[in-house]
Fold this protein.
Amino acid sequence: MAKLLLLEIGCEELPAASVYEAEAQLPVLSERQLGAKPDQLLVGPRRLAILVSVEEQTGEQWIKGPPVSLREKAAEGFAKRHGVSVDDLEERDGFLGVVSLGEPLSEALPGQLDAIVRGLRFGKTMRWDDSGLRFPRPVRWTCARLDADPVEGHGTTTQGHRFTHGEVDVPSAEAYVETLRSAGVEPDPAERQRLIGEGLDALGEWRDPLRKLREVIHLVEQPLVLEGSFDERFLSLPAAVIETAMQSHQRYFPLGENRFAFVANGGDPDVVRRGNENVLEGRLDDASFTFERDVNAGIDELAGRLGSIVYFAEAGTFADKTQRLVALVDRLGGGDASLEAARLAKADQAAELVREFPDLEGEIGAEYARLAGYPEAVSAAIAEQYLPDSAGGPLPETEPGRVLAAADKIDALTVSFSLGHKPTGSRDPFGLRRAAIGLDRLATEGGLTIPRELLPGQVGEFVEERFEGLLRDVPVEFVRAARAAGVPDLGSVARLAQALAALPDERLEPIHTAYIRAGRLGEKEKAAAKLDPELLTEPAEKEVVDALAAVEPQIAAALETSDFEAAVEAGARLGPVLHAFFEDVLVMAEDPKVRENRLRLLLDVRDTLGALGDLAQIPR
Amino acid sequence: MPLNFQDMIRELQAYWAARDCVVMQPYHTELGAGTFNPATFLRCLGPEPWRTVYVEPCLRPSDGRYGENPYRFQQYYQLQVILKPAPEDILDQYFGSLEAVGIDTKRHDVRLVEDDWEGPTLGAWGLGWEVWVDGMEVTQFTYFQQLGGMDVAVVSGEITYGLERLAMFLQDKRTAFDLEWAPGMTWGEVYRENERQFSAYNFEQASVELLMRHFADYEAECERLLARELPLPAYDQVLKASHTFNLLDARGAISATERASYIGRVRDLARQVAQEYVGEAAAA
């Protein structure tokens, strides 16, 4: 008979990130310990709870004892340990043992539930007493019920809303959700999300530019969506400043003009609204004061202060970074607007407003440049320097913006790699994967020419490896093949890989085979240093020489003009003659001079095709 | 009528005194936060129980705005409560203190929002929250995990009320300058001129040469006292060095690269003091 089990871990207010961590692990832990995934996951700031359907008995188990040959010596002790007589032992596969009917669930449960609580892993934990348990915040109670029965080691009460309801009895697992709902708590995060979404929609067009909703769902147990407004005089501040003041600390949602929405955890709506309005106006007042000080200083003065702000310990200050950016923008062929933007790009790191609201970086620098009278192109580039800010996010719309964004990413990657901060596994605290993907997209979608020599060694490898995931229609081996080609810029690697992948199989096959065989033979045996036309005897080998002479300059010319389809097409033209060559000509001829000459020819074939990349990477 | 500033402080002190806290007075040297007071930093090391409540004037030289910004001051007040070990109902006790100064927690929206604390100059960190009342941050709440680079023997709960913020909330004032301190006297009347003059000192007049010399002196004196097994006076030198560093920083006299090294020097001293203090206590 299945029963419903409740386990609730009651905590002091957990960070939202910890709630999400627990939410991801509870199904796995539940299945491992209880043999079933939870029917419901009820997680939030003060409780991590599961409701699971479980069988009353744990499964039948064969407990293996001593081998039959040791019946005399060891059977008695084993039987005694398991509470049976020696005669009751069964024999299976040469061993004695007992069949355990499984424990009643009530006996196994305390240990299993304890294993769930202790099995949760969090990024950041603490201790609060001498229990030895580590958790993101103190665990203050646990509550468990198997249907209506208590579970040893756990309480049968929970806590309602922190300020309107105290301790309440949970009569059964089934009654858990309703018990909490009548105690002022909505335990289901999906339901809280729905209530919040509905409440916000009812207030109009709401925005969440800094994506706070995910956190807000776990900042409340009883969502109360309210609307507030602020004095219109603050509308003279840049919209980004207003929105950031609302979102970054207070987690409010802009509703446009001077209105905002926020989610409270209860209280008298009028009282709570007035308090929150005061707080926001205070923050806007402070922001206005700070904004004016920054504007009065001016962006050039701010840029001048960068020498006293560390960019990265051991990688100098933002003044040093600025110099590197200017040099990189120059190497990337940036024009006057890009160079000016690079010089001012990091000025806002010295702005008081950015110290207060780091999310404003870039955007507020652009505003200060605009107010100082710099051309719109400069200002736009400063605003766009951090784009794309997610793997699929939009690219900068302006050319100077793309150049500056690329320079910023190249510098971030180069500095981080040189200091040994490389992403490992899923850990990427400096967002280097995002930067590398951004760089690849700037080179492909953005059409920016990014010389590969700006990305030496591991940085280049890391950036180019990202094409393997980015170019969805190109198998990864073609990317690896193209990376080995001598093409000079990042975008060319991608386009060459695409051209190679687009070549029909039957046309790729002959040059692919020839490339691999030529390489294999040519490297193993001694080849002539230079091809001697006098030694060519077979028509098929003469044809290869003629074809090479024709195709090699075609490939070079096509690569020169970045016409990768034409380059691959030219290479593919070698296919038929190479096929004939391997059919008709014995490379390993008796005469060593003839042999070495043919081997030379094969190496020339390999080198010519090698301009298209390392075709050996492609499996056939 | 909401409580004025001095009555609010008196209520909070009485509330915690009734819960077995020793009512201490502010420390006698400049501190950046109540955590630096030895009644917190040193007393929270080691296994001995300790409960205290005290007001601490906090000096943040670079936060001064010449008394012109309604929200930023180079000096403000904290009320610090330490409960060691942190009792199970510490949060309920804290919420009771809000009720004691007139905040009805059923009518207001009181929230604990994740905010982990780290004090790099003290080699200290803890996990906790900022406490919001209707969106206003009125308290920092921290469970200490490490002090002076050492895991704490017993976890203390630190409750730090921002007194001006709390009073602004209670008195419904938009700036600290308008707070009623005592009948007929505002916070601004008490402190505005102070803010103007000390901002001028911190940003313009403080003698860099003198401060540099003092920093080196405090550092040397601290090490000398440590060698004499006198961690308490040695800790005063850490505090003085720390404040001197803050002044130099406000004065713009410390380059970005030097900054980390200064912080490291203070942290190193704090770590040695903590070790010596714990060692002394164990030997006694």
